[in-house]
Each structure stands twice: as C-alpha cells, then as structure tokens.
Amino acid sequence: MVEKVFAIIEAKQEEYESLLEELVTIESYTPDKAGVDAVGKRICSFAKSKGFHVQVVPFEKAGNGILITWNENAPLPPIAFTGHIDTVFPVGTFEKPLFRKENGKYYGPGVSDMKGGLVVALLVMDALKDAGYRERQLKFILIGDEELSEGLSGEAGKAFIRDSARGCAAAMTLECGDGKHVTVGRKGSIRYKVHVKGKASHAGSEYAKGISAIKEAAWKVLEIEKPSDQEQITYNCGLFKGGTSPNTVPEEVEFTLYNRYWHMSQRQEIKEHVEGIIAQSYIPGTRSTFEVIGERYPMEDTEGNYALAAHINSVSQKYGFGERKPCLTSSGSDASYTTMAGVPSVCTVGPVGGFIHSKNEYMEADSLISSSELLAATIVELPNDFGKMEYERRTYGNN
Asked: Per residue, what are the HEC states of 301-355?
C-alpha cells in the first residue's frame, strides 16, 4: 500500500504545485476576513472536486472555519490534520509576482507558514483515497486566525478545533518544520494591554505638578520582566504608545505585554505576578488598568504526543526520510487544542521551510513530496489500537 501511495503522490506533484501557487497568490492577512475567506473558498472548491465532504463554520470577524472529511464510515478512529489559512502579511507587503520558484525553493507570503502545509494535507488525503485506503476517516481542520491566537474567532474558534478533533486516534498540525524534528510540546501565551494614567503638565515651568505615566510604566516593565527565564516563563513588554510631546509630562501610556509558558500550572503564577504589579502604583497618583487581548494555552508534552512522534520517527527511518527527533518549541500553534481534546498530537510535520514571518519566507520545493509521503506512510502504518490508551492529560478549566 505504501509504495502505491508514494507513486500516486509523485504523479500528482504538478497539480499540487499549481494549487500552492494559487493559494499563495491570494493574500490572506489575518484581519482581512475577505482575503482569508477567499483562500478558504478555493480550498473548499478544490476539496469538493476530489469528492471530500466540506463543512464551513462562519465567524463574524475571523476567516471562516472549515472541516474537510473523507471516508466517514471507516472502522477505526479518525486521523486529524490541522492548519491555518491566514498569514501575518498585510496586503501589499510583497512585490508581484507574489509566488516564485528559484533554486529549488518556493517563495511568497505564507508559502511555508502555512499554505504549503495545507497543500500537503490535501495531497495526502487525495492520494490515500485513490490508493484505496479505507481504514480510518481523515479530517482536515482549518482555522482563519491562528496568527492572532484565535483572537478574532475567540473561544468559538478554539472550541471548533477541539470539538472537531475529539475521538481521533492522532492529530498532526502541518506547520513547517526542519525535516529533522517533530514538535511534541509548545508554550502557551497570554497577551495583556496595560493602560497607565498620570497627570499632564508643562515639563519645564510646571514639572513638579505633573505625574509621569511613562515613568510609572517603566517601573512596571522592569518588575514584570525581572523573573523572565528562557527555559520556563518569559515576559516581554514589546509595544508602547503614549505621551503628548517632548516638553509635556506624559499623562497616558499604553503598552502590550506578551508572555510564554510551558504548563497550565504556570498560568496562575503569571496572572498573579503580572496583575499584582499592574495594580501597584510605583509613582503616587498614577492609576493602571489592563485587559487580556489574547491567550493560547500550551501544547502539553503528553505521553501520547511522544508516542505519536516515536511512530513518525520509526516510519521516517524505515522509508529513508531520516531520523525525526521529538522537540519542544517556545512558539505556539493550534496543536495545543488537539492536545487539549485528549488526542495524541504533533506539530511541524509539514514541508520544510524557513524565514517565516519575513519577506524571505521560503519552502523547500522537494519537501512538498517528501513530507506528503512521510505523512501518508505514517497513517497507513499506524497501529489499529493507537490512541486507545489513556494518555496523560492535564486540566484546562472548563474546556
């Protein structure tokens, strides 16, 4: 079966390269719902042409969620792929043509983060269908605002991913990788917007009458970031907006705090640390408020995640794709929500790419085929009882 699937994947290379070019050429900046939905519509039409079932879940502000399924009556628990159709690039960031191929690499907005992964998922589903694979249902879960941590679709977007993945034997997020590692754990994050208010005055003649909001914010930033530890929790105050003029004691300032952490047990520690400092006034007369503007829970490194990574590594070496070691990654992805659903999950199993979130973003052209073949073989050779054991699962509030 595996060799047959490989032959089908290789025969479809030109078709799926064309699809990749189409998707990259449609710009899909996260806040641009029309652009994100345009990519989604093209994916839906393509999936329907292959005989897959397509369900669209509308969101008011975010690009719509999409669930593509095939082989619904299969006897074994399903396999889920997850991916996102948005990118970080505002329309017009890249010069035209948006997509190009040079020296064995594809270039363009979102080519590896993660439109290349979307194409790989569809290619794997298509090839398995044509090869006669019937053991498991395949699900492809797509979201439209991953780059904002589901900040536009909110809890409904996160629930869509979790609910769609529940009951699956395994879930694989097709973010780009390096061809050497499989991600089994990722950090979570909380984003705060902090507003500090003081009192304005002339910075010369009435300096003493002013209360500097920026000076208060500076104290807070120093205290908030003091315990940062690269290996555990990090705090970064990375965006500021405030003040009136160089000769005015600043009355107001606003800054954004972004922190990352490994385990849900650290979440309360972060909240107590940050919110306690925000509540305190270092400069008498200042007042501070905050709002949480985004949150992504961590992808806990469960036993099930390691088991799935070990299976991928075994298959990869068997078919000549090399060793794939499990790893932990400080950045986040939607693999956190499939893990939350109790499903053994891995990430960065899409095509090989680099310089993501930059104008030099690229994808290794030959990884379109090699990553598709590895994932297809992983599915074909997944043991029938995989995913039935009780894997370690932590508690995520009411989720």
From this structure: CCHHHHHHHHHHHHHHHHCCCCCCEEEEECCCCCHHHHHHCCCCEEECCCCEEEC
Q: Are residues 69 and 149 in the same domain?
A: yes
67 and 200 within one domain: no
Domain of 172? Answer: 2-186+298-380
Same domain as 284, residue 210:
yes
Name residue 191's beta-bridge partners: 258, 294
Last residue of a domain, one of 230, 263, 296: 296
Q: What pLDDT is attached to residue 7? A: 98
Q: DSSP letter at 177?
A: B
Closest CA to 151 of 324, 296, 362: 296
CB atoms inside a 10 Å sphere around CB 335: 30
- Alpha carbons 184 and 134: distance in angstroms, whole number: 27
Q: In this predicted structure, what is the pLDDT of residue 36? A: 98
Pairing of strands 136-144, 76-84: parallel
**Cross-strand bridge partners of residue 305:** none
CB 312 within 8 A of CB 374: yes
Rounded distance, CA 376 to CA 380, Å?
6
Q: Is it the case that residue 64 has pLDDT exceeding 70?
A: yes
Strand partners, 307: none
Query: Given pLDDT bands bounded at 50, 70 and 90, which one contains residue 388?
Result: low
> DSSP assignment of 236-273, as one string?
EEEEEEE-S-TTEE--EEEEEEEEEESSGGGHHHHHHH
CB within 8 Å of 282: residues ≥ 6 apart? 216, 219, 220, 223
- What residues contact 320, with CB distance under 8 A and at least 6 apart? none
Query: Does residue 207 fall inside a structural domain?
Result: yes
Nearest residue to 294 (alpha-carbon basis) of 383, 219, 379, 191 = 191
The pTM for the full model equals 0.89
